[in-house]
Amino acid sequence: MAASERRHAPGRRSRTLLGAALCAVLGGCLTLSDPDPDLARRHVAVRAEFAAGDSAQPAAVLDGWLGAFDDPVLRELVHRAWERNPDLHEAAGRVAEAAARLRSAAGLLYPVLAATGNVQRYDSGAFRTGAGDPIVTDPLDAYSVGVQVAWEVDLWGKLGADRRAAVEAAAAAGWELVQARHSIAAAVAEAYFAVTAARAQLEIDSRLLEAEEFTLLTTRQRVAVGVAPTLDEDLAAANVELAHAALEQDRRALAEAKRALELLLGDYPAALVEAAEVLPDPPPMPATGVPADVLDRRPDLLAAAARVDAAFYGVERARAARLPSLTLSAGGGALIDPDELFWSIAADLFAPIFEGGRLAAEVAAASAQQQQAIARYVATALRAFREVEDALAGERSPRRSVEHLGRASERLRAASLSAENRYEQGLLTIIDLQQVRRQDFGARSELVNSRFQVLRQRLRLYLALGGTVEVEANGMERETDDGR
After folding, report:
1. Max CA-CA distance within the chain?
2. In what order do the strands lie in the sheet with 112-122?
3. Up-side HSE of residue 43: CA atoms within 13 Å toward CB?
4. Do residues 369 and 384 make contact, with C-beta atoms less than 8 angstroms apart?
5. pLDDT at 141
6. Most confident of the ranges 78-87, 278-287, 341-350
7. Residues 398 and 61: beta-carbon distance below 8 Å
């Protein structure tokens, strides 16, 4: 070979390797397929409409359900929980971890550049010549510095599949954070209404205690003038004590409800948080849409779908690992003497021939993981449908109870006042008065509980349908298509 040919040979080899790399990259991009959009959805049984739905429901905007309650205190508490709740911090940590793993997977697609350094000492020691005279040599030190570049060419899309799996995993973590925010908001609202209901019950039993104490005073006067037996006084005194006991239970229940709310807020559970004075009326019934809408709206289902896609790319990665891999590398450096430069370039081809079935087992394992992800998606979807159906059916009964109890409570209050007057006139016994009063205050308590149950079921319906809490919340609540 001529000297000029020898000088240009490395350039030809470099262009050949570069062309091979470009072809390999293009080939890898072409071989990496995307999952079927209906990969998981086709396994879900979906009805045309909700079984417990009501076609007469008035349409309402589902987004921003927190504003429908028009309670600035509740809104402030929800935002405080979003900032301080430890479960949300944990979910945010998972998002940060997924984002870091995505950057790590993406980094594998790029060449690796590394600096190298080497220090060596050669010492042959003393040896003898043929004449027997020892010859002593001095140690020889050698120093070198350089750089190395290595790049694994993504021949079959293995690294690309890793990256896309990481993208889907990061998207899933993001949707799980959104779901956690929705769940925390609904839990805070429910705890807030529970505190209000407990306070209302405390107020009811306080009124009952006042009524029982007044009856005891009236009964003692009647016993003193001999128009009532001492039995009436004993019964009246016992009712006062029972009313005191009920108040103690109410105070304990109120403190427990406050502590539960404070835990959601990330505060110390000192039972110091305050709530509204009365329970609000539920907002208008939202339009539920159809079950298929839930699949596109609920963050936990969007997260489960992303997990399915990530598992799909895991299978693609395992399949590509069974094919040959190509790594390009180059290096260069210099000894201490800058005139002594050296460099090298290489292409390493690795094609597995026999590995004891390990790679085939990896494909089988990845396929099983994909099957599990699809099963989890189906289970999540069915659970979501059940939550919607339960919320729709669960609100109907307490809402009707509120209507009946409201009318009954008005009548019983009037009957209770009439019974007190008749008892003072000696026209009713104390047992008759207690029976009417028990119905009156019992209906008041049932009315508060039913109103609370309506609000609880409404919150569960918002959560089940995938309704957003605050449209403006960090830009995360408005968009539903950017997380995939």
Report:
1. 147
2. 112-122, 140-153, 325-335, 341-350
3. 17
4. no
5. 67
6. 78-87
7. no
Q: What is the rounded average pLDDT for all residues in the chain?
A: 82
CA pair distance 223, 230, nearest whole angstrom: 6
Token pair 């004075």 is found at: 277
Cβ pair 173, 98 in contact under 8 A: yes
- Rounded to 5 degrees, φ, ψ at 91 are -65, -40
Q: Thinking of the domain 32-111+154-333+358-465, which architecture would CATH place it in?
A: Up-down Bundle (1.20)
In degrees, rounded to 5, the angle at the alpha carbon of residue 153 between the alpha carbons of residues 309 and 361 is 50
Q: Which of 23-32, 260-269, 287-296 holds the top average pLDDT?
A: 260-269
**CA 320 – CA 326 distance, rounded (Å):** 12
**Cβ atoms within 10 A of the Cβ of 14, count?**
12
- Alpha-carbon torsion 165, 166, 168, 173, what sign? positive
pLDDT at 128: 55
**Low-confidence winner among 111-120, 208-217, 376-385 (lowest mean pLDDT):** 111-120
Q: What is the pLDDT of residue 475?
A: 42
**333 token code pair:** 């450096």
Q: Which of 43-47, 71-75, 239-243, 344-348 has the lowest mean pLDDT?
A: 344-348
Of 52, 55, 59, nearest to 284 by C-alpha is 59
For the purposes of burial, counting CB atoms within 10 Å of the CB of 261, is it exposed (0-12), middle (13-18) or buried (19 or more)? Answer: buried
Q: What are phi and psi of 429, to 5 degrees?
A: -80, 165
Let me know how many helices (H) and strands (E) the chain has, helices first. 9, 6
Place of tokens 């099957």: 371
DSSP class of residue 279 equals P
Give the integer Cα–Cα distance in Å for 335 and 482.
53
- Residue where the block lists tokens 């009548």: 411
pLDDT at position 74: 95
Dihedral sign of CA atoms 361, 363, 367, 369 in order? positive
* CA–CA distances in Å: residue 218 to residues 221, 246, 382, 400, 433: 5, 22, 61, 38, 12
